[in-house]
Amino acid sequence: MSEHSEKLTKTALTPSTHTTPPAKFSHGVKKGNILQVAGQVGFGPAVEGQAPTPVGPGLREQTLQTFANVEAILKEGGASWEDAMMLRVYLTDTAHFAEFNEIYNEYFAGLGEVPAARTTVYVGLPAGLLVEIDALAVLG
After folding, report:
1. What is the tens place of the pLDDT at every residue in 109-125?
2. In this predicted structure, what is the pLDDT of residue 87?
3. Reduced 3-state DSSP string for the chain
């Protein structure tokens, strides 16, 4: 590394639709052309003075809202679904796997190059939440 190389700035991303995270993390972080979206859940758009509230209660509503929340962070960082390299999906119930795949396939039907995806069962989401998704995007 030469003495003239510049250190890339790391920028936290919080779209207007999102509340400030409850702990020391960001909804998304961009550094250079890499954008990492933190795990998002099916909370509806932020309302001033109110705690985040899940949409739903069904898997479809929560999944579509979760996708919208991930997409808002991608957009905030200048990216789109086309830039997504990988999505990690956490479900609270193995019985939701088939329904989730249907919703996923519908949602991304028009996407040219779909991201690599990994689905994992995750049992530790707060009450009422059925799905969490994070994403890694590379711009350019």
Report:
1. 999 888 887 778 777 89
2. 94
3. CCCCCCCCCEEEECCCCCCCCCCCCCCEEEECCEEEEEEECCECCCCCCCCCCECCCCHHHHHHHHHHHHHHHHHHCCCCHHHEEEEEEEECCHHHHHHHHHHHHHHCCCCCCCCEEEEEECCCCCCCCCEEEEEEEECC
Which of 112, 45, 104 is CA-nearest to residue 72?
45
Q: In which residue are the tokens 């396939």 written?
A: 105
For residue 50, which amino acid is it? Q
Which value, in Å, is the radius of gyration of the alpha carbons in the chain?
16
- Residue carrying the six token digits 């890339």: 8
Could you tell me which of 21, 22, 115 has the C-alpha nearest to residue 73? 21
pLDDT category at 61 given cuts 50, 70, 90 is very high
